[in-house]
Amino acid sequence: GGGxxxxxxxxxxxxxxxxDHELAGHAEHLQYRWDNYVNFRREIEQNEGGLAQFASAYxxxxxxPKPDGGATFREWMPWAxxxxxxxxxxxxxGNATPLTKGDFGVWECDLPPGTIEHGSRYKVRIKAPHGxxxxxxxxxxxxxxxxxxxxxxxxxxxxxxPANERHVWAHQRPxxxxxxxxxxxxxxxxxxTEESRVGTYREFADTVVPRIAAGGYNTVQLMAVxxxxxxxxxxxxxxxxxxxxSRQGNxxxxxxxxxxxxxxxxxxxMDVVHSHVSSNEVDGIAGMEMGQGDAASTYYHMGERGYxxxxxxxxxxxGTYEVRRYLLSNLRYWLEEFNFDGFRFDxxxxxxxxxxxxxxxxxxxxxxxxxxxTDVDACVYLxxxxxxxxxxxxxxxxxxxxxEDVSGMPTLCRPVRDGGVxxxxxxxxxxxxxxxxxxxxxxxxxxxxxxxxxxxxNRRFAMEKTIAYVESHDQSIVxxxxxLMWLLGPEIYTGMSAxxxxxxxxxxxxxxxxxxxxxxxFFGGEGYLTFMGNEFGHPEWVDFPREGNEWSHDMCRRQWxxxxxxxxxxxxxxxxxxxMLKLEKIFHVLEAGNHFVVSMVDDERKLIVVERGPLVAxxxxxxxxxxxxxxxxxxxxxxYWPALDADDWKFxxxxxxxxxxxxxxxxxxxxxxxxRPCTMVVNSPCRSAVVYFNVDDWPDCEFxxxxxxxxxxxxxxxxxxxxxxxxxxx
Length: 730
Prior knowledge:
The chain is an alpha/beta fold and 730 residues long. 25% of the residues lie in helices and 19% in strands. The protein has an eight-stranded parallel beta barrel. It has a six-stranded antiparallel beta sheet with strand order 23-24-25-30-27-28. Strand 8 and strand 9 form a beta hairpin.
């Protein structure tokens, strides 16, 4: 049951060594990691009955309602001298409800029916090893609230609503399509409202989710769901791993949001923070460490090893039985109780290495990944986590596990059964840094096409899948700038009216904003990500309410109306983003293993030509040189038509692309990577890009005549007029 190992047992050596010969020099390390994983799986098979059972601790720990109206409380605190449960229900009098110490350092009590009501506040009062009493939140608290002040302390809330207040699931997880490439909308619920306040799960479900679906995204990544006392941490300084962030609503509201995503066919993943925990002892799980000096009886590493200097946070000890039980149960809780479809794991680089990646740059030398710097315990925990996700979600639905890792550790995104760490994708965290460096330091007429292509292709294609992005929430934070702000400067405020001609700065900025996105989407990875609002060039940076800005929400909201006003250029950027993502919907261009060839990289003329799947993209980055008759190589003969034209009027362009089909001629096109069998002639406007598809590949369907009669400019328009139901290009 639940991810039990096959009766035949796992292979003695990890298959990844046979599949990837580059790893041969590190066989000993990978074997050691594999043996650790296999042995721990055996141990929990014997002790607990399997991985799913091991990860079900959330069903019995913390304050759990019983069917008869009573409740049970259990908490692992082997170091406690005495313990009591306190709250509204007993007038905060610990003597009324003492806990008794059972096996394995677990303290527990039974509350008879009628003792505690839904919504009651509670905490644990503990006599610490040093003799003093302290009040703490249970590590298993599912919901906690503070008074309505940004700096108030939290109490646990006993969440047991009556049947008529519970969310009833109305929608299944989306069925897994034959091919799936994640096109991810990274979103923060609290800042997703136009108003100067914290937005709610229900508002997001009703107003933002339909926008995401209409935009062509197939996956929503929800940030800041796990409870965090400090709002301005963007959700990354988690205090209560099981807590639903109470600023944005209650657990039923979050279920309503996940259900709404599924209703729109969207996969929903959660930003999970298992890399560290806030050092705030009063409001969170950091308080469950009392300097007891014994690694087996706490969640954290001892001494210096248990502290992250840059983040001022505590670090889990991934090697201990109870920490693995706790964190795996945390994953299963979010999957089972809230129907999440998977996770984006935060801070994976910090988990993988004892040095946490602090002041390290990774050159790609395999010795950096497989040596004494590597935290094998953390790797094994992540293998268990990815196996759990895989086995918790039915194969008929899409499950997704993504690593935020800057190191590029090989095997990170190989299946666990082969000896990999088991993620589906890693984030291409190096790409935004390259783009920001260019925007800050290099005029675009001096951009190196060779370097751009090398950067966008810097991944282990055949081996591991990558999610590409131009900018994420990281680039939006105060002190940094979004890509459009780098490009436009002050004209982001003065130049975005579409009623007059754009200035030279605005025309350049709009063009490069679209081209950078198109090239990143088209050949930067096997998936794509956008942070909420960046798709239409949302102005400003993100600055959460804090003391330094007098608790203002002005920079912590999203002005959706900018993209919806026809007289502003933001609407052009939004229209382009939607058209670009239609390429994935119609042509499945991001699919891993797709045909992929870079046929031209011309630094003098600033040209890049790339074939991906059934499409050919022609990028012209030159600031002023348009080419009326550019000969490009293509892989297949036939008749080509534009699928997407970045210079289209409706994207604020100049409409310089000629509207007719291009026929190939069987003249080979020479290039370094191997000849292209035929060529075609296209017109290539400067600072723009056009994507073509082969009409002869188009299925025999009713839309063919529309193309023949030139009734439409691009295929994407065709998809607009037919709601995307065009069939699939082979």
